[in-house]
């Protein structure tokens, strides 16, 4: 018996929830879960609310469950009191649903910007504050960064987000699953494929529906193209923030080739609105396969030289090696996913930890490093891009014939489903409850950045102010993804 088993058995199981269990628990069990999280026995995967209930997804190796605590008075014991990664999720649930986490050490709003915001204080001789944002140069989402510095050395950084709140959860309530899938694909534009896939997979699980094999394979092809394009973009921008524009230009050109191939293959550079409940909305024809194969070949031709340039440029290594270190213990405590966690020794990838089709039949490695610095995050991206190239080859070679879409079954009472899909930043969690008529009653989407933003603040301490853009880009956390 594990801690997770004890928690599951302590509650009342909701039968219409899949593929993992959801149980209604009491306050002692809820607090026991918080203690297990604080002790490192479980990992927090999400925390969200509705009018009189708070939900929490927790996991251990290869298993997870949702714990639901009724709180008719809209009060519940704070998980963040003992496990800090829950604090921001609790703040968002309070702003959205009025749920008060009792005993929380951080009661500041997350999405509400009407009042003056009390940033955490840093005191000491010679300290000064530097305010950056929320408006930034170029095309970038808004976020405010407040530095406390001693000369050029950063003593504390705090990020304030929530500026791109757009009412996603309210927009989804009452929508058809087709319309809600489009909303999901707009939570964070650079991960539109991953979000749409997570949402429709949760819906299909709730309905007991299996998409056709060709549709599933095409979803994965889109996801790997999305992952590859974003990794190419990030590697280039990290190099650019270290004042090495040559690699930025080359990686940008390769990314453009991937986006053009996606446009030829699927009619949209970012592949938006192509993953739909029941399957996909567009097939892959011969010209599309040829365009993708050509883009992959172009990357493979240039790849060894570009990686060699990165390795052999001393001025670039001087900026990235040893900068912005995330400690392994902190990555594990926060449940950091994606390249942020894997660069700091946390071996977690939803495609391998909770295998879903077609990844359960594909060959790929999950690269992991221990250094936790900017360089490690770049090298994880390099290794993951190489894995995506291999996966794209496998997906194209093994693409089965058959239909693209399975009709949705008629509604047969309320149903709930959940999915965990690996986006380029890390795992995206989707939880959905459907009404008896098949429309969305409640949906929650959780970005990997919820558990990565606090690590940006920790990693930058002790570094110089000039290294913040470089460090921040090596994380590339989503603003929009945490501003639902």
The total strand number stands at 16
Question: Cα distance, first to last residue?
Answer: 37 Å
Mean pLDDT score, rounded? Answer: 96
Beta-strand content: 15-25%
Rg computed from alpha carbons, rounded to a whole number of angstroms: 22 Å
Q: What helical percentage do the residues reach?
A: 40-55%
Query: Low-confidence segments, ≥5 residues, pLDDT <50?
Result: none
Query: What is the overall silhouette?
Result: globular
Number of helices: 16
By secondary-structure content and strand pairing, the structural class works out as alpha+beta
Give a quick account of the main beta sheet: strands, pairing sense, barrel closure.
Answer: 5 strands, mixed
Strand order of the largest sheet: 1-3-6-5-4
Task: Describe this protein's structure.
The chain is of the alpha+beta class and 484 residues long. The protein contains 16 helices and 16 strands. It has helices at residues 3-10, 27-38, 87-97, 168-172, 177-184, 192-207, 213-241, 245-266, 286-312, 314-320, 328-334, 338-342, 350-353, 374-397, 453-460, 468-475; strands at 12-13, 17-18, 22-24, 43-50, 53-60, 63-70, 75-77, 100-102, 127-132, 144-150, 153-160, 275-276, 279-280, 415-422, 427-434, 440-446. The strands form five sheets. It has a five-stranded mixed beta sheet with strand order 1-3-6-5-4. Strands 2-14-15-16 form a four-stranded mixed beta sheet. The chain has a three-stranded antiparallel beta sheet with strand order 9-10-11. A hairpin with a 5-residue loop joins strand 15 (427-434) and strand 16 (440-446). The protein is globular, with a radius of gyration of 22 Å. The two termini are 37 Å apart.
């Amino acid at each position: 018996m594990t801690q997770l088993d004890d928690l599951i058995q302590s509650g009342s199981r909701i039968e219409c929830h899949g593929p993992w269990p959801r149980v209604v628990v009491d306050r002692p069990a809820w607090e026991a879960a918080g203690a297990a999280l604080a002790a490192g026995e479980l990992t927090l995967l999400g925390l969200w609310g509705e009018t009189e209930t708070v939900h929490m997804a927790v996991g251990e190796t290869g298993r997870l469950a949702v714990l639901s605590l009724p709180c008719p008075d809209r009060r519940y014991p704070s998980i963040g009191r003992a496990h800090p990664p829950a604090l921001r999720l609790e703040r968002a649930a309070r702003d959205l649903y009025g749920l008060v986490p009792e005993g929380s050490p951080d009661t500041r709003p997350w999405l509400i910007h009407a009042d003056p915001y009390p940033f955490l204080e840093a005191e000491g001789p010679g300290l000064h504050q530097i305010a950056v944002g929320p408006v930034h140069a170029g095309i970038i989402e808004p976020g405010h960064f407040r530095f406390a510095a001693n000369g050029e050395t950063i003593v504390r950084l705090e990020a304030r987000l929530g500026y791109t709140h757009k009412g996603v959860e309210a927009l989804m309530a009452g929508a058809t699953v087709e319309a809600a899938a489009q909303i999901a694909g707009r939570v964070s534009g650079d991960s539109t494929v991953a979000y749409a896939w997570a949402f429709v997979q949760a819906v299909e699980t709730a309905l007991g529906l299996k998409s056709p094999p060709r549709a599933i394979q095409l979803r994965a092809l889109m996801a790997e193209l999305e992952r590859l394009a974003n990794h190419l973009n990030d590697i280039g921008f990290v190099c650019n923030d270290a004042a090495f524009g040559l690699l930025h230009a080359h990686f940008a050109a390769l990314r453009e080739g991937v986006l053009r191939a996606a446009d030829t293959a699927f009619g949209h550079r970012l592949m938006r609105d192509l993953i739909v409940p029941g399957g996909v909305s567009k097939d892959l024809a011969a010209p599309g396969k040829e365009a993708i194969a050509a883009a992959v070949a172009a990357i493979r031709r240039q790849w060894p030289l570009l990686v060699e340039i990165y390795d052999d440029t001393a001025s670039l290594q001087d900026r990235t090696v040893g900068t912005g270190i995330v400690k392994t213990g902190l990555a594990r405590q926060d449940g950091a996913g994606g390249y942020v966690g894997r660069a700091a020794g946390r071996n977690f990838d939803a495609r391998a930890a909770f295998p879903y089709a077609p990844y359960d039949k594909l060959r790929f490695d999950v690269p992991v490093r221990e250094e936790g610095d900017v360089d490690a995050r770049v090298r994880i991206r390099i290794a993951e891009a190489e894995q995506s190239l291999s996966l794209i080859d496998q997906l194209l070679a093994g693409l089965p014939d058959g239909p693209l879409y399975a009709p949705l079954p008629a509604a047969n009472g309320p149903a709930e489903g959940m999915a965990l899909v690996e986006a380029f930043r890390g795992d995206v969690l989707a939880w959905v409850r459907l009404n008896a008529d098949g429309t969305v009653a409640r949906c929650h989407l959780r970005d990997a950045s919820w558990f990565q933003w606090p690590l940006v603040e920790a990693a930058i301490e002790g570094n110089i102010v000039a290294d913040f853009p470089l460090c921040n880009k090596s994380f590339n956390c989503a603003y929009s993804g945490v501003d639902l």
